[in-house]
Amino acid sequence: MNPKTYSMKNLLALIPVLLIFACQEQPETKNTSLKARSLKDAYQDVFYIGTALNTGQIFERDSATHAVITSQFNAIVAENCMKGENIHPEEDRYYWEEADAFVKFGEKYNMHITGHTLAWHSQAPPWLFVDEQGKDISRTILIERMSAHITTIMQRYKGKVAGWDVVNEAILDDGTMRKSKYYEIIGPDWVEIAFKIAQEADPETELYYNDYSLSNPEKRAGVYQLVKGMQDKGIKVDGIGMQGHLNMGSPNIQDFEESVVQFSTLGKVMITEMDITVLPWPSGRVSAEVSLSAEYQESMNPYKDGLTDSMAVALNDRFVAFYELFNKHQDKITRVTMWGVNDAQTWRNNWPIRGRKDFPLLFNRDNSPKPAVERIIGIRKDKP
């Protein structure tokens, strides 16, 4: 038999087999990859995707929640364990166990670590502002105490923490300075002094000012003037943390965007403490009449049996709208941090009314992702 004829016959016989194989459904590599991508993978070349950690999460007590943290996020911030009343409960005593564990967690899983917070009027230790008789201390003594607090903490974690929220919430909604104990005892220059201390304690780490409601034009102006004034004096402020404690009706996305753009002229912009509450804000109308009070409480907890379909859709849409804004301004934003991991463990369930059921985060109570997660990942689908 002619070898050429034999080869041709065999080739012809293979054609149906090849056609059958070609027509079979093959794995969709791109789609499979997209579904497998996490939030941190999707945004790895854009900005950090972060979450706040509570102590249970820091000590890895819940395996399901831990799996979400390590698979979805590449940045962490301490929810409470680095705040003054926790880390420095007495003047001559620091409590390091939880803060040390937090930093070790970040190192273990190669995460971007932010320290929160060094000077804040709330959750400050009771001893900080008073003497042994309970009277306000002098300006000099408070500056000394603030310096010791900031320096001791920052130097303990020097080279491990990428940046610190040095001062938290020092400006009111009208743009004026909050008349906190820091302000009353030291004066309006207390914020400048705090940043100078931090800069001296660790010149290499980044220093941030962090506050809420920064889409409010008056507050935006007040914070801008505060930070710009410090920078003009040569005081190091590397960026501004825009707390993302949002609700369904406010802030207006355009106002939020204007703040991102304006603050970016001063340095880095970080979206911090992000969550979106669906619950109504309580009014002062709580009667002594028990039945009326019960009715009021019921109205304040409308989703105890779960979100309605329409609210679930609206919540997911609002999350996506804000992440589209963040992606749009990826050249200005360096980190987006959720204030918690899942709805079961959010502070929103207990503030400002205890025992309510809120749904403010990207992961449900059972750690399953809300539909918004896939859509947020999808924003980056066609991006390099």
Can you walk through the features of this model?
The termini are far apart. It is built from 15 helices and 8 strands. It has an 8-stranded parallel beta barrel with strand order 1-2-3-4-5-6-7-8, surrounded by 5 helices. The chain has helices at about 5-25, 30-35, 40, 55-60, 65-70, 85, 95-110, 140-155, 180-185, 190-200, 215-230, 255-265, 290-300, 310-330, 370-380, and strands at about 50-55, 75-80, 110-120, 165-170, 205-210, 240-245, 270-275, 335-340. With about 375 residues, it is α/β, with parallel strands linked by helices.
List keywords for this structure.
single chain; 384 residues; alpha/beta; TIM Barrel; eight-stranded parallel barrel; disordered N terminus
Write the SSE topology.
Elements (H helix, E strand, L loop, with lengths): L2 H21 L5 H8 L2 H4 L5 E6 L1 H4 L4 H10 L2 E4 L5 H4 L9 H12 L3 E9 L18 H18 L6 E6 L12 H6 L3 H12 L4 E6 L5 H16 L6 E9 L5 H12 L3 E10 L12 H10 L9 H20 L4 E6 L32 H9 L5
Helix pairs in contact: 8-10, 14-15
Summarize this structure briefly.
The protein is an alpha/beta fold and 384 residues long.
Helix content: 40-55%
| CATH homologous group name of the domain at 40-281 and 332-342 | Glycosidases
Structural class call reads alpha/beta
CATH topology of the domain at 40-281 and 332-342: TIM Barrel
CATH architecture of the domain at 40-281 and 332-342: Alpha-Beta Barrel
Question: What is the CATH class of the domain at 40-281 and 332-342?
Answer: Alpha Beta
Give the strand line-up of the largest sheet: 1-2-3-4-5-6-7-8
- Tell me what portion of residues adopts beta-strand conformation: 5-15%
| C-alpha termini separation | 57 Å
| Spatial shape | globular
Residue runs with pLDDT of under 50 for 5 or more positions: 1-35
Order of helices and strands: HHHEHHEHHEHEHHEHEHEHHEH
